[in-house]
Fold each of these.
Amino acid sequence: MKKKKIVIIVSSVLVLLAAAAWIYFKVLPSKKETHSQHEGMAGMENMNMDSKGENMTTTEEKVLYTCSMHPQIIRDKPGNCPICGMKLVKKESESREIHDVSLHTLLKPTNGYAISAIPATTLMQSEEPIEINALGYTAYNTNEVGAVSARISGRIEKLYVRFRYQLIKKGQKIMDIYSPELLTAQQNLLFLLKNDPSNSSLISAAKEKLLLLGFPGEQLQQVINTQKPMFTVPVYSNYSGHIHDASNTGMNNAVPEAPAMNEAASLTTQELSLKEGMYLQKGQLVFKVYNPNKVWALLNIYPSDQAFIKAGNKVRIVPEAKPDKDFRSSVYFIEPFFRSGSKTLTARVNVDNSVLQLPIGSQVRATIFSNSLNAEWLPKEAILSLGLEKVVFVKSSNGYRAQKVETGVHYKNLIQITGGITVADSVAANAQFLMDSESFIKVRAKD
């Protein structure tokens, strides 16, 4: 009986221990999981709050502006660089990542290869109207030049023009000349009129001789009426314009050359080399008279543009002296030679200067309208000029390499490409950003 009680007590203790062990291992882990879940949610909330704080901090950051050439210049508003004057750009807080760049690419020389992610462009095939800009100046039109020559030998008694470039009118008296030949011819006429007035043939011949020697008709009638010879004979101009000294003498120089630009625009008013008391020889060129109302605009044309310019092309000219008085004309003639000291051809354009009254030698800007050209074009910004060479940056793998190109006509913001690249090549849309200002760009022939 006693043993039976002991067995019951031991069994009860074991059952209690088993129940306690089950409660301990079943209920406690669930509490730990619940606690860890609460901690995880709290951590997530803290992370969200942190990220929100970071976003708020990023949003509240100021936008800064800097200079591309001088990064030490930083401003909080747009403007210009105080050093070079370039427009300030936005400063990026993070650099753009370029992936898949190999070590071999990074070790290439910077003067021949540049790693960049700037946009690229290709050749554009189109037909564009050609407009060629040219600079020039106004000059006298040699077709409107008159020459005053001495018909007889004699001495200058009175000179009525005193300085170069003096404006004279047609019929204006230039000088009084004493000529023994004219005096003898007058005396012969008076002798015939006095001693043989019925000999009309000899009298007519004597009158005609005086007229052919340049004796004015009015003075001839005066000699006949007064029966006295004139010792000095007036010389009148047959042309209107600016009077110039004759640089050479002799009959072979009767057609004068156009004055040089520095001569035509001289600021010094010089005296005439011809003076009173000097003797003239028969046939000697005395003065040149240039018409200021009919002039030329001499335009400088580069040889590369010669193929697009022909006589008859329309031209719009803007005088620098009167920029609001632009006018239209056409190319009259293209000189087939290079002038001394110049490597440009000269195109002549007729200008009616009667209204404009432009000073001779004044600068002009011209736009010559040629025919349309069907060609391959690139934007002007995609081409970098190295003096005698033109360079573009051709896209290759993860960067750009310098490539020499041949160019043709410039039209507005486009430049014709005649060689160096093909339509299959992609080039940097702005070559200026890939230029190293402290090194020379190394170019090589196209692969």
Amino acid sequence: MRIKDLEIFLDLLKSKSPTQTAERFSITQPNVSMIVKRLENLIGVRLFERIGKKLMPTSRALFLGGMWLEVVQGYYASLKNLESINTQEIIGELNIVATHTISEYFLPRIIFEFAKAYKKVKLKLQTSNAKECFDLVKSGKVDLAFIEGKISPQYAKSEGLISEMLHTDSLIVVSNDFILASRTRSIQDLLDRTWILREYGSEQRKCFLNALAKQGVEIPISLELNCTVAIKNLVIYQGALSIFSEIAIKEELENKVLFPIKVKNLSLEHHFYSLKRQSQLHNEILVKFEEYVLDYHL
């Protein structure tokens, strides 16, 4: 039995005309007759008697009409309440931690759009290295962490966490010298350059140096900084070399301020992951924010 069938039946009780009921529901008169027949078969009694061009409801039909009207009204009332729940304003706080590149270049626009949509939600974002992010979410001091690098679901599970890969990026060696970047270089060609890398503990640095170590290469590091913007400025204005996540230098690459150097036998994928506790209680704000992150397109 469908709600639509009950609505048609109730309308027919009033109109007593299959033609008028069919017009109101944008169906054919035979369809109205078929629905009546289906209801009669279901309950095992006649519901209408034909008198001339009209269908007159039986006493049983009038009795059922009162009951089924409550069913239909209750159905639509429940839909209205559900809609009210779904559109109810969310109030609360969400604490997030992220590694530097994600905090500076991936999350800001998402947080801005989320804040516009949910004006009574307070978002707190702090920036830390990967280990600190991991420890903060694991200890329950933050609700959600975003980390660069590589985290297997098995490892996350063993630590009581749930991981989800959100974005795949590339690590790129860059320079302000378009001539240097005009052809593929070997890493040996670049060893005499001034290299500036992120601080110890940075996943970008770790990924890059591990890849070079597999080739038996060690680069001279002239300076270590924990600020991507500062490193970027030194590469642009002082001619240093560094490695960046592509998302961090997207604008500079487009504006031809920085140039990617293709290095032989060096291809580095870089992943962004979210982390939350397996024991995390249901948090509607967290669920909504995760949806925003997953729907975000760079």
Amino acid sequence: MRTPLFRPLTLGLLAALALPVAGCARNSAKGDLPYVARDVGTLYSAAKQRLDQGRYKEAAALFDEVERQHPYSVWARRAQLMGAFSYYLNSDYTQAIQGAQRFLSVHPGNRDAPYAYYLVAMSYYEQISDVSRDQKITQQAQDALGELMRRYPNTRYAADARLKLDLVRDHLAGKEMEVGRFYERRRQWLAATLRFRRVIDQYQTTTHTPEALMRLTETYLALGVRDEARKAAAVLGANYPGTDWYQRAYNLMGEYPATPIAPLAPGETVVPPPPRPQVEVLEPLPEGASAKPAAPAPSPPTPTTTGGDNPAGATGATGGTPAPGLPPA
């Protein structure tokens, strides 16, 4: 008699115990740690040990646990930055940027703030792709490196940021050259000129400047603007005289010489163009007046005669009334 009652209770208890186990399994699948109260020293030491062993994902989770369990301790501030660093080493750059920015929002004047800015910049820098793809990340890396140099110019992080910034600017210039060459292959000369001009104006210290000047010479010649092509070739020769790009620009200018104006033949004179017709400017109408078409002027008709010559004052065939339009005799 007890067996039928005991069995449902047992099954119900097992199902109830399975729920926390399933919840723990889901947390483990997500990478979240179950909440186990531990002192700050134990948590931080375990996180640092995982970091030294190269288990960066586990280290980041333990550093986050330090901040969660002991948010007001001295170690929580350090753990917040170390967690962002662990995410960076694990190539989880989005989490690294968010962690470093959260640290800066809570502790903007901390002595480790320069490193937090550096961590943000490096997280963008590591995501830079080749020039055939969109360069939004590259622009964000340039902005982050510039922000670090502006705020902390005398730190060792700023010194490294200057070197990285040169590489980032060279990458952005390479993207402009890639797009400019694409337009040039499609014979869209004006669009290509604008891209090459941007390299000269904004990235003139990069390695792409000599080619940009040569390409400008090509596109200006294609557009028929020979003076601008000569200026671009002259700048190329003055700054990069020994490069192949200058030799190509020099050859281009020789292949497309300026067409001189043919001299006049002996005795030939220049015929001036006809004068422009004078256009009558009408005066404005008085207030309240309306524009009416003017009556056409009567033209003198040919008089009808019955024979012989009819002088200017002769009358018509029907009587002595002068012809319309002629003065009376």
Amino acid sequence: MRHRVAGRRLSRTSEHRLAMRRNLVASLFEHETISTTIEKAKEVKPFAEKLITLAKKGTLSARRRAISLLGNRDIIEHEDGGTARKGTVIGKLFSEIAPRYIDRPGGYTRIIRLSLRRLGDNGQLVLLQLVGKDETSKKEARAAAKKRSRKKAKKQVEVEDTAETEETAEAAEAQETTEADSPRDETDKNSES
């Protein structure tokens, strides 16, 4: 029985699992999207979200705790045949990633299943991503679309109102002319007789 046994073993020793989890989360923070198996992604997601929540505090003790949990790997980029250090993973986490989610109460990552399978063992592949800037732009786009549709609806209402007022004005003029013509006819007929 496996009562109250939390976590996945992933066919690894505890040290190997810990190192793999740290490496995957550091790569996630560095690249903001990684491709891995569904089991690894489900195991890594809570750890990444806890680190982002810790980084939202922004205090020195939170930074030291994040370093102890994750390590402080350098971010290296290859340029012109050489390598250049672009900062650290913890630095990026605290300066770029955490401020992005300051108003968000949770749910900083998502898992997107891919139709691809790994060649060696036919493992199900997924993308583990940080929910990013594209969501805010989508929200802004939706808000702008709603605003445009409201303006269009308002213009249509205004056009309909002006059309109705024009129609009522024309109808009133027509009614006035018919009313004005009919009494004259009667007075003309009376005067002739």
